[in-house]
Write a structure and sequence with these properties.
Layout: E1 2-7, H1 10-20, E2 27-32, H2 35-38, H3 51-61, E3 65-68, H4 71-75, H5 78-84, E4 89-90, H6 98-101, H7 103-112, E5 120-123, H8 126-136, E6 140-144, E7 153-156, H9 159-171, E8 176-179, E9 186-194, E10 198-200, E11 205-206, E12 209-211, E13 215-218, E14 223-226, H10 235-253, E15 259-269, E16 272-279, H11 286-291, H12 298-306, E17 322-329, H13 346-350, E18 355-359, E19 362-364, E20 370-372, E21 376-384, H14 387-398, H15 414-417, H16 425-428
Parallel strand pairs: 1-2, 1-3, 3-4
Antiparallel strand pairs: 5-8, 6-7, 6-8, 9-10, 9-15, 11-14, 12-13, 14-17, 15-16, 17-21, 18-21, 19-20
Helix pairs in contact: 3-5, 8-9
Length: about 425
């Protein structure tokens, strides 16, 4: 099987690493890739959001499967162009990707499918935003309706700050969602879909805030771990029954079947599970942790999704170890990340037992030296016998990597490792969920 992976981040590096261990994949390419991916497979410098360029590359490579990693190419209609040209594609159509591209659209689908989620109001101007903030109360949750790479959400008790974020979204030509605040721990669940059948992967938990203790602004994600030993028994099946399957069925009813991965961002609240958001692709950095444990051949799983054959796939198999991913970010991230700084110690980190380095915002300079080229530069994944062991490996690896002004959180998975996550009683008891 010849596979083409579209994207350039840490998620795509993780996907490439997993596909390389699949014996059914005999040829693998990426576009545009990054410095880490380029060291593993051939990469091609095209615009990943240009449907014509991606389709032409897939045709030239005679690809059997195209895997679209990021959200922007999906919203740009890349998957539609590929399907029209006859290629099997892992990734939803432009219309189906609106589950991520428009939070208002996602809320509408959830309402139709009776999916539990936060109460929300759509605002198109500052007056409507103010009225919605007052109606739902503090803490205030303000979300850019469109794509924002994980950084379009503000959660604050400062009404003026919430209004300022809403105004920034309006100035960009968009609208906002004002939502009720959801209490309780968050869970990420990837669900592989083929338009009708859904197959869950292992749950993960990610960390959006830039600083320890969940302080500071939201980011695209500063770390993640999987599996989650503390989640209530039967939670994954409940998410399939009450969230993923109803949404996939509703999308099919609309004539826009969802093919790819549905990312379910969930809160385990005092009133039961609630959907925070959907993404139409693998989340980053959860993918790095989840795929580190996957034992089912990834290529076969993604091809079954693309061809509508997930019903024929057996149970997904997992390694018994725990994985922890810690993100190394550039100075100034997320507001104004500095780029072009030299990276050292990556090879040393990768020589540690149970440690992988997955590059994201990296490139090679004119001298062929590894430098930073984005806000989230790389992630270090530790694979260990338990959460404590995996954390120790991940942090041992990241401490070997040198990047001037870099930053990373030191508390990824700490509460779970020490057993201090508080799960609300309603989320822990299925009979009270709803």
């Amino acid at each position: 099987m010849k596979v083409l992976v579209i994207g350039s981040g840490g998620r795509e590096h993780a996907i490439v690493r997993a596909l390389l261990s699949d014996s059914s994949v005999h040829e693998l390419h990426a576009a545009p890739g990054n410095a880490g991916i380029d060291g593993l497979i051939p990469t091609h410098q095209i615009d990943p959001q240009d449907p014509a360029e991606v389709t032409e590359l897939a045709r030239r490579l005679d690809s059997d499967l195209v895997v679209i990693g990021p959200e922007a190419p999906l919203i740009s209609g890349v998957s539609d162009a590929l399907r029209e040209a006859g290629f099997p594609v892992f990734g939803p159509s432009r219309e189906a990707a609106a589950l991520e591209g428009s939070k208002a659209f996602a809320k509408g689908i959830m309402a139709e499918a009776s999916v539990p989620t936060a109460m929300a109001k759509v605002a198109s101007d500052i007056m409507e935003a103010g009225e919605a903030l007052d109606a739902l109360g503090a803490p205030y949750v303000v979300k850019d309706d469109g794509l924002a790479a994980g950084k379009g959400v503000v959660v604050t008790r400062d009404r003026d700050y919430a209004l300022a974020h809403a105004q920034a979204c309006f100035d960009g030509g968009g609208q906002v969602l004002i939502e009720e605040f959801l209490d309780g721990p968050e869970v990420s669940l990837f669900v592989i879909c083929d338009g009708s059948t859904v197959v869950p992967l292992a749950p993960a938990q990610d960390f959006k805030r830039i600083f320890d203790g969940d302080e500071g602004p939201n980011t695209g994600g500063m770390g993640a771990y999987s599996p989650l030993e503390w989640i209530p028994e039967g939670l994954v099946q409940e998410v399939i029954d009450r969230v993923a399957q109803p949404v996939v069925d509703q999308m099919a009813h609309h004539g826009t079947p969802f093919i790819g991965v549905l990312y379910c961002g969930l809160a385990l609240t005092s009133r039961g599970i609630r959907v925070i958001e959907f993404n139409a692709r693998f989340g980053d950095p959860e993918t790095q942790a989840v795929l580190a444990r996957l034992r089912t051949p990834l290529g076969a799983l993604l091809m079954a999704s693309a061809k509508g054959q997930l019903a024929e796939v057996g149970p997904v198999r997992w390694a018994p170890e725990t994985a922890v991913a810690v993100v190394l970010a550039a100075e100034g991230y997320p507001e104004r990340p500095r780029t072009g700084d030299r990276l050292r110690g990556v090879r040393k980190a990768e020589q540690l037992e149970g440690v992988k380095v997955l590059q994201a915002g990296t490139s090679l300079d004119e001298q062929g030296k590894l430098v930073s080229s984005g806000g989230r530069v790389l992630s270090v994944v530790g694979l260990g016998t338990d959460l404590v062991d995996a954390r120790e490996r991940a942090y041992a690896g990241i401490e070997l990597i040198e990047l001037d002004g870099s930053q990373y959180r030191r508390d990824i998975a700490a509460k779970a490792a020490w057993g201090t996550i508080d799960v609300p009683a309603a989320s822990a008891r299925p009979e009270n969920r709803g």
